[in-house]
Amino acid sequence: MCMTILFFGRLSDRFGPQITCDLPDGIDDLAALTAWLEHRHDAKGLLTEPSIKVMVDKVLVHDNPKLKGSEEIGFLPPVGGG
Fold first, then answer.
1. Does residue 82 sit within a domain?
2. What is the DSSP letter of 79?
3. Are strands 53-56 and 59-61 parallel, antiparallel or unpaired?
4. What gap in Å lies between CA 58 and CA 40, rounded to an integer?
5. Residue 58 forms part of a structural domain
6. 3-class DSSP state of 74
7. Mean pLDDT throughout 56-80?
8. Which of 51, 72, 81 is nearest to 7 (CA)?
9. Three-state secondary structure along 2-66?
10. How many domains does the chain have?
């Protein structure tokens, strides 16, 4: 199965706008995926900052859902501007 991971705002500068990949072996929930992404990109806690919101299949999540590998994951930093 193929998963799409989207990065918005300042996160897209660090990770690129999108990654499409198979769910790595041993990764079965959002926390494990986030840790894997941070390790893979040497992001040092960037995706786990309290201000970063996560959507799974366009639904904002506040917990650690299990993943099947076909989801669309979005990492959203706070929106700024004036």
1. no
2. P
3. antiparallel
4. 24
5. yes
6. strand
7. 94
8. 72
9. EEEEEECCHHHHHHCCEEEEECCCCCCEHHHHHHHHHHHCCCCCHHHCCCCEEEECCEEECCCCE
10. 1
Which tokens hold the place of 4? 């799409």
Main-chain phi, psi angles of 54, to 5 degrees: -130, 135
pLDDT digit string, tens, across residues 7-66: 999 999 999 999 999 988 999 999 999 999 999 999 999 999 999 999 999 999 999 999
pLDDT of amino acid 82: 54
CATH code, 66: 3.10.20.30
Q: Flag whether 81 is in a domain.
A: no
- Tell me whether residue 63 is in a domain: yes
SS3 71: coil
pLDDT for 64:
97
pLDDT of residue 1: 67
What is the span of the domain harbouring residue 19? 2-76
